[in-house]
User: Fold this.
Amino acid sequence: METGHISVLAKEVLTFLAPKPGGIYVDATFGAGGHSRAILNALGENGKLLALDRDPDAIIRGEKLVKLYPEHMTIKHTSFQTLGDTLIEWGEEQIDGILFDLGISSFQIDQPERGFSFRFDGPLDMRMDHSLSSNSKTAADLVNTMSERELIDIFFKYGEESRARKIARAIVCDREEKPFTTTAQLAQLAQRVIPNHKRAIHPATKIFQALRIAVNGELDQLQKGIDAAINALGNKGRLGVISFHSLEDRIVKQTFKKVTSHPQVTGPAALLPQAKLPSLPFRLLTKKPVIPCVEEMQHNPRSRSAKLRVLARA
Ligand SMILES: C[S@@+](CC[C@H](N)C(=O)[O-])C[C@H]1O[C@@H](n2cnc3c(N)ncnc32)[C@H](O)[C@@H]1O
Assistant:
């Protein structure tokens, strides 16, 4: 079942990345290609776009777009964590604009067989890269083999789930009877362990988020990806990152802060008159994150938690 994907903050991304004719751009998370298409439309005769996605299904969708823009677009099945190597291979290392639109697309979440959603029953998979060459573990592998302590850590750290202990305990008990294989099994466990929930969200929301992050190594990959992207920005180049939860946003915010502020002088040196500080190589274009307007949130509820931060090489 495919319902399509609506690109988040599409207008704002174009305003901040300001793609120019003849420019060199990277869409690090192609997804359904909405942002890529908008960038391609602005590139003119000589511009180039490299699109990446670690999901082979997104690449199949992207190949249709490559046929429309054969001179301008290249697509590659890879993770953005190795962006530096990918750019060397592409032959462009000074990039005018790079976009990361994190998380998963509606195509992924709405397909029960991908196992991302507790709204549908499907295999407990959650791998973004489910190709044969990927040897990453599925969510079922983690749930069935990790120790109780490891599960608690994942649920606390990646789901900020306050009932991590209770849920991990129940998983370890249940799996002795029957290993977890489906999303419904795990969703039902969450409902059982957190009864009479008065939450606005489904009780399985946080553990599904936590498992997805763990299965895909998302936070580690994000750090590597944005570090590589910052390195690759050419003169006046811009990097935009759209995040969807506080764990992602924290990484983006702290990394951007590190490269746009002078290191603090501490100890006795702080008492000495400071020489004029050298100018910094990067500047923040968004002092506060850009969030969707009310109309966008109503039209596309998935956008509700989106935050866009943008950095530019000065
Ligand atoms: C929210 S969607 C992007 C939607 C896209 N901007 C659009 O307008 O259609 C996120 C995409 O990023 C991909 N993705 C997530 N982590 C990735 C990574 N480390 N490397 C490459 N792609 C990744 C996912 O597979 C998914 O297709």
Notes: The domain at 127-216 is CATH 1.10.150.170 (DNA polymerase; domain 1). Residues 5, 7, 29, 31-35, 52-55, 58, 79-81, 101, 103-105, 128, 221 surround S-adenosylmethionine (CB under 6 Å). The first strand starts at residue 24 and ends at 27. The mean pLDDT is 94.
